[in-house]
Amino acid sequence: MTITNALNKIDLKYILIILIAVFFSTLFHELAHWSMGEILGNKMTASLNSANTISGEFKHEWNRNFITAAGPIFTILQAIAVFFLLNKYPKKELFPFLLFPFAMRFWAGLANLLGPNDEGRLGLSLGIGLLTISFIVCCFLFFLVYKSSKKHHFTLKFNLISFLFCSVFLIALSFINEYFKIRII
């Protein structure tokens, strides 16, 4: 087996790492919203797939954009950090922590068409449209995934299968969160 084939092998261990990446990346994304809200003096609650003020209102209306931006900013910073970690320590086990931020923001961007979420709400609030920020964020995250994949010889097939697992696990997490009404804070 060549090195490229070994790097692109998707086994049970790698799939488990994707699951871990999805769970913790989503959890910390929501905790970023929650933390920003609390820092700004809003009483917040968070689940595995959302963070909101307990009262449904913000202490100050300007808090809305800061709280909304905190999750995507954390996700972007995670991707940047993992991109550089992958460059220093070329381990395929790190790759899901770079790929999932792209998958997460890609699906969130499409979900804006059903109702504005993070980047969509920010774009509308700033007067630049529903999909503008999502498009920019997705392009940037895709660029990081592309550069890393090219450098580490991750194939298109490896990327697509990994993206599929990220997507399935994200959907499962969302359904589990809705069905069991899981609150983390």
From TrEMBL:
Protein keywords: Membrane, Transmembrane, Transmembrane helix
Superkingdom of the organism of origin: Bacteria
Transmembrane segments: 12-32, 66-87, 94-114, 126-146, 158-176
Stated name of the protein: Peptidase M50B-like protein
Biological source species: Flavobacterium cutihirudinis
